[in-house]
Amino acid sequence: xxxxxxxxxxxxxxxxxxxxxxxxxxxxxxxxxxxxxxxxxxxxxxxxxxxxxxxxxxxxxxxxxxxxxxxxxxxxxxxxxxxxxxxxxxxxxxxxxxxxxxxxxxxxxxxxxxxxxxxxxxxxxxxxxxxxxxxxxxxxxxxxxxxxxxxxxxxxxxxxxxxxxxxxxxxxxxxxxxxxxxxxxxxxxxxxxxxxxxxxxxxxxxxxxxxxxxxxxxxxxxxxxxxxxxxxxxxxxxxxxxxxxxxxxxxxxxxxxxxxxxxxxxxxxxxxxxxxxxxxxxxxxxxxxxxxxxxxxxxxxxxxxxxxxxxxxxxxxxxxxxxxxxxxxxxxxxxxxxxxxxxxxxxxxxxxxxxxxxxxxxxxxxxxxxxxxxxxxxxxxxxxxxxxxxxxxxxxxxxxxxxxxxxxxxxxxxxxxxxxxxxxxxxxxxxxxxxxxxxxxxxxxxxxxxxxxxx
Length: 455
What we know:
Layout: H1 2-21, E1 27-28, E2 35-38, E3 43-50, E4 57-61, E5 66-70, E6 73-74, E7 81-88, E8 98-105, E9 114-120, E10 127-141, E11 150-153, E12 158-161, E13 164-167, E14 171-176, E15 182-183, E16 187-188, E17 191-192, E18 195-198, E19 207-214, E20 221-236, E21 241-245, E22 250-259, E23 263-268, E24 271-272, E25 279-284, E26 290-297, E27 306-314, E28 317-328, H2 332-341, H3 345-357, H4 369-377, H5 384-404, H6 408-419, H7 424-451
Parallel strand pairs: 2-10, 11-20, 21-28
Antiparallel strand pairs: 1-3, 3-8, 4-5, 4-9, 5-6, 7-8, 9-10, 10-13, 12-18, 14-17, 14-19, 15-16, 19-20, 20-22, 22-26, 23-24, 23-27, 25-26, 27-28
Helix pairs in contact: 2-4, 6-7
């Protein structure tokens, strides 16, 4: 250290002696410019002097009065500091020549910011210039001084804080991660400032909030703060009363809104459903607020009717929803309509021909309606062959009932015709003709007796 000070003293002494022997005047050309660089980059100070002669040029740190370099000699022990100079060989310059001196400072840090002096040792006092180094620093968020994830009960107040450093001083803005408006006194997209106050928090304000710090020096930085709003469960469903046909599957659905998520279940008539009775499917949604609850019964039976309830509970309360389920069977009219709707075009033509030949199909007797409907209930909606068989049986039943009302001798004729292999329709017509003829004979006999009474 003593040696370095002695060298500097000798250099300054030589410079002072050189002033008295010089015949010209040294001077700075222009002002040494200020330097602005980002942290980690290289800063360069440029000092231009005319008529240097044998005078010495030094660079110093102003705030600490530290000598960094004299001429080509680096005084400081920092490996980040170097110095260079060049001579301008323009013949129009004075005999002393013009020299450009440059101080290089590599990998600058915010601690390097401040004033730097270029000093010429040719006068008492010596002349100098000062330039300032500005070290820009990208923004950085101070995690320890900023809010972390926060949980608050619905209706309370939430305060989110964000602290950041950088040069220039960063600006801080807030926005929701999902780009939804921030619900304050009015809905806004972005809020400025290091503190975000939310008063009377509602569950719709439950979201991830981003604190973004920027100062024009890339890159900007952000911190994610998740605000969870705790509230008691609420259960909703689009089903209140459900009517399901016998043998068909049943699917019930409820949705539970709650935070934190709690216990969910299904019950039947206040009894918890066993796993082998119904398939239960819980589907939590991505927002961690809504849970979809499904109940599936593969094959509805009469004993499955009743009240089904979905339940949801957490530390703040309990909620439920009840769905009334009725099991219904298709009546005869529905079965008949479904059977008719499944016929093909050719089957409809066959039916039309049968109705033209036999009038009794167009309007069956009232007393036989129940019998026919009971038969049709057993009919499959897709089995056409079975339907034809049932209709044929119905026609035989109808003819049998009408034949029971005929006189005894007509029934004997029909039986004889059936034994002979005659169609039933022909037998009926022949019987009708014989009956008419018999009545006509009785009428003629009566008239003859009236005209010729017995003596």
